[in-house]
Amino acid sequence: MSFPITTLARREGALFLEDVALENIAAGFGSPTYVYSRAALEAAYTAWSRALQGKRARVFYAVKANSNIAILQLFARLGAGFDIVSGGELARVLAAGASASDVVFSGVGKSEGEMRQALAAGVRCFNIESEPELLRLEAVAKRMGLRAPIAFRVNPDVDPKTHPYISTGLKNNKFGVAFDEALRLYRYAAASAHLAIDGIACHIGSQMLERDPIADAGGRVLELIAQLNAEGITLKHIDLGGGLGIRYRDEVPPAVSDYLGPLLAKFAGRSEELCFEPGRSLVGNAGLLLTRVEYVKHGESRHFAIVDAAMNDLARPALYEAYHEIVPVAARELTPHTYDVVGPVCESGDFLGLERELAIQDGDLLAVLSAGAYGMAMASNYNTRGRAAEVLVDGEAVHLIRERETVDSLFAAEKLLP
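-> structure tokens emitted (418 positions)
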């Protein structure tokens, strides 16, 4: 079978990521463990940079997809900027060695403290998502004696044709300012002594598998830019978001160049820098979750593979009913059964995959594929479970990029009553 992760292959029945056997990773680091491929990360970034070659354009990695500082460091070295949604993500980006001037601050709920932090650091731009946020940022910048660089994230009311939980560009979504309100807000910002208009932003959703929605959204953005230019309001950049999907099962996402083609054609010849914020398409199929079967449990109507990873490690199946391919690390000559792959967490919704045909036994390792995006980044400590270790494979080398959490570390900040 072909795997969504291109650097994953089976050799003499055993699974290898690049040149490292997954069995060896489990032996060295335990399970559950997130495992990433440096070659896959670099290839994904290169696909974006090549598609934008010769254009005045730049990639800003969406940190929320996977925020490990080693991965941020890798993208910074490749030339990426960063799209953040919290002060914590800003701190991560800076810890990874990137410059605040390469950071765009998005998100609907920026606190006053986060605004002060980002202004003091010197972020490139704030993507403003509401009028109250604009007024708060203006007041904070005034108190600090600064001008805040801004872009409005406009909501074009375009259907991204994706899961409703990851759709962000419809008028009933919480994100962005209403398209019809944007011109008034730009006028206000242009007249402010403590706001500096830098650009315009638009992001309509995630895991998009068609190119028409983002091209349609781009057309709407161009309409608004024409209105702004007519009033003497000029922009330095146009941020068109990310959203390109990946293959989890049988999806056929377009190549980056094909996805961007119609959009780039609409903006050809313009002087503004084009900015893109991919996340999932850079890291999703560069990682997997390695987990061990604790018990194979045969019931009257269903069979279960109870593994040591759970919904606290990978929330997407329980949260979205998302599909992740699950494959045995070692091929076995056993009778296959249809299993629900479930974790030890005390919830009926604790599953990683349902009705999977697997030939396995107690103690076997499984690889949950396409887990590089929104995997570790969404993990929790529910049931007082320490979060997984993370390792990065680089050819024959393996780097531990996050240690496994211990139980002691989970309650180290808690205090007993006197």
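The longest strand covers residues 287-298.
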